[in-house]
Amino acid sequence: MEVFTEKEAEDFLENEKFDVIERVYVEKENELKNATEKLGFPLVMKVSGQEIVHKNKVGGVVKGIKDYEIAWEVFNKLQEIKGVQGVMIQKQIKGKEFLLGIKRTPEFGHVICFGAGGIHTEKLKDVSFRVYPFGKREIKKMMEEVNASKDLDKKSIKIIEKNIFKLCRLTKKYPRIKELDINPLIQGRVVDARIVWQ
Predict the structure, then answer these.
(1) Same domain for 110 and 193?
(2) What's the pLDDT tens digit per position in 155-194?
(3) Rounded to whole angstroms, what are the CA distances from 112 to 14, 129, 144, 181, 186?
(4) Facing residues of 87 across strands?
């Protein structure tokens, strides 16, 4: 079993033609200034490390960073977290948060999921599942089953449908995927991702 860090997972998804948020991975303090100037504010900063699975639980995600001074303080704070290898700095965007995922199960093989995303995903349980393979009609049905997607405009619906379709293609292309989580997807863009390989 191999686990991709967020950086590895996002780079992989970008290579597979997913729209991933602008980001810079920083390991040293002297790289921070260039990163913040390249991205602009406001920013999100996230701890990154092979052994850090739940960043929120260790205080490893800080949003709403408005200037370089705060970014410098947050960077140094994140460096104190056990298992840290670097810090992922991202442009902060607003919008509804969705979850997209793949899970390989002993009973059904690969299962695709779509639902309400963000840190309250498990509490909300607003998620739809389908056993792969399936067609575009089922993708539409999946979206209809999720309350969080009910008030989306046509453009947003189309973008999410395309992302679910891309997940299906990934499942076929990479059968070794054991788990893949995109959470959240905001405005059709991957903001955080994790991949576990068989």
Answers:
(1) yes
(2) 999 999 999 999 999 999 999 999 999 999 999 999 999 9
(3) 19, 6, 15, 10, 18
(4) 26, 47
Q: CB 55: neighbour CB atoms within 10 A? A: 19
* Residue 157 structure tokens: 């619906």
Residues found in the chain: 198
Residue 3 lies in a domain: no
Domain that holds residue 46: 22-91
Please state, in angstroms and rounded to a whole number, the distance separating the CA atoms of residues 132 and 123. 25
Tally of structural domains, the chain: 2
Task: Please report the sign of the dihedral spanned by the C-alpha atoms of residue 124, residue 104, residue 195, residue 40.
Answer: negative
Instruction: Say yes or no to pLDDT of 101 above 90.
Output: yes
Taking CA atoms, 87 is separated from 79, 129, 175, 177, in Å, by: 8, 33, 30, 25
Q: Give the per-residue pLDDT at 123.
A: 84
> What CATH number is given to the structural domain containing 184?
3.30.470.20
State the DSSP H helix or E strand holding residue 10, giving kind and residue range, or none if neither.
helix 6-15
Separation between Cα atoms, residue 182 and residue 69, nearest integer Å: 30
If asked whether residues 71 and 35 sit together in one domain, one would say yes
Residue 177 shares a structural domain with residue 108: yes
Q: Is the pLDDT assigned to residue 54 strictly greater than 90?
A: no
SS3 151: coil
What span, in angstroms and rounded, lies between the C-alpha atoms of 18 and 187? 12
Cα–Cα distance measured from residue 189 to residue 130, given in angstroms and rounded to the nearest whole number: 22
Query: On the CB side of 191, how many CA atoms lie within 13 Å of its CA?
Result: 24
